[in-house]
Each structure stands twice: as C-alpha cells, then as structure tokens.
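Notebook, p. 212. Picked up where the previous page left off. The plan for this session was modest: take the two constructs that came back from the sequencing core last week, fold each one, and keep the raw output in the notebook itself so nobody has to go hunting through shared drives later. Recording the first one now, exactly as returned: residue sequence, then the structure token string.
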Amino acid sequence: METRHSSKRLSVALVLIGLLLVSVGIAVSMRSTQSENGALTAVPPAARIQAGSVLRQTLVYQRCGHQVARTVDTPQEWIGLTYEELQPKLDMAWRVTDFSPSEISMRENLMLFCPQHWVLMPDETGQICVWVNRYGEGLERVYETSWTQSHLPESARETVRIGKAFDLLEEAEAYLDGLID
C-alpha cells in the first residue's frame, strides 16, 4: 500500500515538473531571441506592444567606442502594434534587438564622438573649430579658433581633419597650441 502511494506521489510530482517546464518553454518562446551578432531572429507574430511598455535605446558612438543607454516610455502611437507593423515607423538607423509586448530594445550605431568629448575638427571652410555632441546625435560647433588646417604641421592635418577627441576643453586647446607654436 505504501509503495502505491509513493509511486502516485512521484507520478504527480513528475507531471507537475513537466507542466512547469512546458510553461517556462512557452514564456521563453514569447520573447524574441538574438543571434550572436545581435540581430533579432524570432518574434512571435501575434505579440503586440502593451500599454505601459518600455523602450530601451542604446546609442553606440563608433568614433570613441562609448555607449549611452536610455529607457523611456514606449510612444503611445506604438501601443497595439506587432513587430512587423512597427518596422515602417522606425528611422532606418535604428535596429530592434529585442521585442516583447512589455519591452522593446533598439540600437543605433553613430559615426560620431559621444557627448563626453570635445572635438577639434575643421568646418567646411577649413577653419579649425571645437565641436561637442550636446544632444547625442550630432556635433555642434562651440567656437572657431583663429587657425585653419594650413597652420597645422603636415603630420597633424589628417588627425585633425577627421576629428581629434579630448575629455576636457583645456586639453583640446593645449593640443592645438602645441601644434601651432
């Protein structure tokens, strides 16, 4: 009699464990997955963005290698959309890296320096200027120096032409003064 109860308990326990594993499998399959290169590989076709979901954005600054992450509320006009319906609404530079009804992760690679740097670089006329990335997605001229690229030694022209970044404005000014003197 005792053996029958033990095997019944074992059977019930195994069934419960099986149900738990199936539930976990379903939950995992409801989330998107990524390949090793970060590309989105699977999205449940019926998954729709829920009210109260969040948008996680990562800006990757290719020139300095820094990243900035921000989390914001998902735009109201995206609520109820599927992954496929969302795609035409996105700027082409953004790549969705994860998609679920409660969270969307996106990444944008920018060929810029991040907002932590002061950048020495000429403007379109060749005037050496100091630039900064104030808002995260573009450089803004802070001021013009009194020198043009022709004032620079030949060895520094290419470096400054493509932009040389500094952590402090004083470092950028000292570098330029050292080149010109």
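Okay, moving on. Second construct, recorded in the same format:
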Amino acid sequence: MPTLNADLAWHLSGPLLAVFYFTALSLSGRQRGLQFLHDWARTQGFVLVSARRRLFVPHWRWRPSKGYQFFRVTVRDGDGVLRANWTRCSDFSPIFPRTDPTTMDVIWDDPAPQIASA
C-alpha cells in the first residue's frame, strides 16, 4: 500500500505543479496589466474606476489574441464624467516575450465629449 500512495502522489505532483505554475503566471500577468492600466489612465488625465479582465470581447475577433489580455475599463475624466472602453494590452508574460508592453489598443464605447468653443 505505501507504494501505491507514493506512486499516486508522484503522478499527481506534475499536474498540480502545472496548475500552480499557470495560475501564478496568470495572476502575475493580470497584476502587471492592471498596473499598466493605472499608469495609462494617469498619463491620459483619467482616474481608473474599474478594470475587469475578459476572455470574450466584442472587438478584435479576427486578430490573434495570443500574448494579449483584454480588459473592460471604466475611467473618470477631469470633469467627473465616467467613460468606458475595451482595452487590449500585452499579456506581460515570459511565455510571450515578443509582445511589446507599450502596445495598447483602446476602443471607447462613445466618442470623447466635444467641447463647444465660445
């Protein structure tokens, strides 16, 4: 019996380590993506209100998604107006080192408000 338990533990250790590794990798990439979004919002004059990572998005269907992560983002502009967008940015993963961490695509739900000139 001890041999059976040792064999079972040995056979389960590989898949468990793989699940742990890929979960840690995903969480790390998500955290770096959120930090990137915070920095982007600040440089654009926005405050990041919420950012949720999404697997299925209405945009970029026909473009390769390997090496990218997608977020549903809500920001507040300087006038206090909430604006929402879909954002595609690098996965920040060592598995896809060729992705450029400064590459970012943003599709706003509505166009920027126009300021009437006097």
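Notes on construct two before I forget. The two ends are 87 Å apart (CA to CA).
Flagging for discussion at group meeting.
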